[in-house]
Amino acid sequence: MREKLFQPLGITNYQWGTQHGSGEPGADWGLMLTPEDMGRFGLMWLNKGQFNGQQVVDAKWFEQLKQSVFPAYDMGYGLHFWQIPNIDGAVAAVGIGEQYIMMLPSKQAVIVATGGNYDEPSKPTFNTLKLLSQQL
Length: 136
What we know:
By secondary structure, the protein is an alpha+beta fold. Strand 5 and strand 6 form a beta hairpin. The protein contains four helices and nine strands; from the N terminus they run H-E-E-H-E-E-H-E-E-E-E-E-H. The strands form three sheets. The chain has a five-stranded antiparallel sheet, sandwiched between helices. A two-stranded antiparallel sheet has the order 1-2. The protein has helices spanning 2-9, 35-46, 60-65, 124-135, and strands spanning 14-16, 31-33, 50-51, 54-55, 76-78, 81-84, 90-95, 99-104, 109-113. The mean pLDDT is 85.
């Protein structure tokens, strides 16, 4: 990940928890980034894998990512990303405690939020992101 994703995005300050036993990073958990680096990732996603003129991730992956494997939910989910149709077709990377990288392709915008809402079922950060996206 360091050479193929983090270095091209200029991400140097990160931590990634490892799986018990194997010592390998978890594919869907444990990554800690600064808000600025979360934004870099979101911009790369918004630009279909390009960042600073370099193709970091193959563009076809981003079309697959928009296709939910759970279409019956309010929010779809596929390839570790949530599809949020009620927010202008947004797609989001969501972390524990309401950490969000929300990409809004229809508005060419990325919203990053870091929260500490571990025991808050009402999702206050998500609701704020929804309101913010309506103002863009």
